[in-house]
Automatic annotation (TrEMBL):
Keywords assigned by UniProt, alphabetized: Hydrolase, Membrane, Transmembrane, Transmembrane helix
The name this protein goes by in its record: Glycosyl hydrolase family 2, sugar binding domain protein
GO function terms (MF aspect): hydrolase activity
Ranges in coiled-coil conformation: none
InterPro entries on file: 7TMR_DISM_rcpt_extracell_dom1 (IPR011623), Galactose-bd-like_sf (IPR008979)
Segments crossing the lipid bilayer: 211-230, 237-254, 274-294
Organism: Leptospira borgpetersenii serovar Hardjo-bovis str. Sponselee
Amino acid sequence: MIRFSFFQRQILLFFGLFFVLNQCTLELERPQVSVVSGVIDLSSWNFEKYGPVALQGDWIFRWKEFVEDPEINPEKNRLMPVPKAWTRIQEPHGENYPGIGIATYFLKVILPKDLSSTNLAILAETSEAAYEVWVDGVKIGAQGIPGKTLDTSTPEWNVKILPFQIQKKEFQIRIPISNFYHARGGLTARLILGNEDQIIRLREKRMTVDVFLLGFLIAMALYHFTLYFLRKKDAALLYFGVLCFVFCFREISTEQNLIKVIFPGVPYLVHMRIVYLSFYLIPPITSAFLRAYFRRSLKKKFIILSFLSLRFSL
């Protein structure tokens, strides 16, 4: 009973801190705005009061083309929700878009008249595809290198701040995008617009939370490994330590992508392998931990089935 209560405290502490840290990133209640038919109207948005805004909703979408102007052959334009994989959307003839392909996204942004700063920025979150971001014909950044073929395209899984200056109250965002490496294509990343200082603070805040959580997970893993070496008969200690260790890899390879800060040159395919391997390792290790913890309560068949999830990550 002493061992059980000890583990209960550890688990409650782990998930309690995880909940608190995630709550720290929640934003205050504010008006809901979204992209409608390729336009987002921020004329009544107060960046100083409400902070950055996510550019999510229905963007103008041009399939199988890199075009600079959506008014060229406008009959080819479609609406595509962002962030969302185009593989989940049906083409006009009824079938879903394939994962492999190229496209161009367009968005018209209407800014408030009393905007205090002309120094804006976009926080580009992780996406499986390669894409560039252009504002009124000026390239402000990219995630990898989009291309029309596999050989000319290089994907990148990262989080970036894309700063730019704008003097007008209306501007157009154009995103040429290609996907030749992942099962799902499309602009699955959230793009968040705000004053440059706000975007930098938002990124730093999220990074701080991730670093704190990573440090906590490492401490928990080392603590339970130490306890296991002192009491080797208690396998639950080992499994819980391994679980924390796997969560460490999950933490550095997703969200704010600390792995790109620690190892800037990590290849895309290696990065994605870590992302999926860390995900599929969680069920079998959790099952092994629960079986060691409750011993007779869990059946071996459940453990074997959970280990089969490893196959999907290899």
